[in-house]
Structure formats: C-alpha cells, structure tokens
Specification:
By secondary structure, the protein is mostly helical. It has helices spanning 11-21, 26-36, 40-52, 58-72, 77-86, 91-98, 104-116, 124-137, 142-156, 163-169. Helix 5 (77-86) packs antiparallel against helix 6 and helix 8 crosses helix 9. The chain is elongated and about 65 Å long.
C-alpha cells in the first residue's frame, strides 16, 4: 500500500499476479483483492474482465483441485469437498468436479498400501491404529478407512506370526 492508503497498481494487475502463482477461484481472488484495499467496484470489474478472458473459471479450478487431491495426494471425498468449500467453490460446481475423483475406496486402499510398508516393524494393533488415523486425517470415512487398513496391513505383514488374527479382531 502507498502512504495515501490506496493499493499499488490496479485490481486487475494484482489479480493477474495472483493467478501467475497458481489458479484461484473467483471467491479467493475477490477476498485477496479486498484485503489489499481495492474498492468493490474495481474488484468486480477486474474479475469480470478476467472471467471473460477465460483466466477465472471456477469449474476448471475445481477440476484441478480434485485431480490433485484425489490423484496425487490420495485424499478422501470429505477432505476434497472441504478444500473446495474453503476456496469458495459453489456446491454445484464442487459436485460436478467430484465426479472425476474416482472411487474413494480405491484411493483409500492405494494410500494404505503406500504407507503400510513403513509400519512393518510395529505390532499389528499399533500399525493399524497409525494407518487408520492417517486415513481419517486425509478425509476418508471410518468404514472405508478400516477396510483399507485391513487390506493393506494384511498384505504388508502377512508373514508375521499372529498378524492375521490381530487384524481381523480390530
């Protein structure tokens, strides 16, 4: 901000700089521009111009978030929906984007398998508890997390004596 209290440059320039870092939702840009001290009229005009130019597209943004969270990070549906909500994506756009997330159970098993190998040295109940906690923190429901843990740990520690009995009792 300058000494006279007005932000430097235009709202459109600031929005373009923000978009240069990563894609953002319209709501995110609006919030950041308001925080920077731009006037609501200038913000609205800048966002309209950028939307017409195709630089702001909440549907495309939501698809990118879902692809990242479901594909690369292997997060659960609850977590992905929460991230979209935090970023100001409407429920309608979020539901459409979530259609490309794939099967949540498959993601849970993939994440559990990826992490189960690290837990081989632990006793089965401890390994289960840690893996289950990870899956819950990543936004998977309790039932999906429990089943993914059983599948992954059964594969990872099948050669340990008594492991199968302890996993099925969990």
């Amino acid at each position: 901000m300058r000494q006279d209290g007005k932000p430097r440059g235009t709202a459109k320039d600031r929005a373009l700089r923000l978009l240069g870092v990563r894609w953002r939702s319209r709501a995110e840009l609006d919030q950041r521009l308001r925080q920077a001290g731009f006037q609501p009229e200038e913000i609205a005009q800048a966002l309209e111009d950028l939307e017409r130019a195709g630089l702001i597209d909440d549907a495309r943004f939501a698809q990118a978030v879902v692809a990242d969270r479901a594909g690369r990070r292997l997060s659960g549906d609850r977590h992905i929906r929460s991230v979209l909500r935090q970023k100001g994506v409407t429920d309608e756009v979020a539901v459409t984007a979530m259609g490309s997330a794939g099967d949540e159970s498959d993601r849970a098993v993939a994440l559990a398998r990826k992490r189960a190998g690290r837990l081989r040295g632990l006793d089965p109940p401890t390994a289960f508890r840690r893996l289950y906690g990870l899956l819950l923190r990543r936004g998977f429901g309790p039932g999906i997390a429990r089943e993914a843990c059983r599948v992954a740990l059964a594969e990872a520690i099948a050669d340990m004596p008594g492991a199968q009995e302890e996993l099925t009792d969990g």
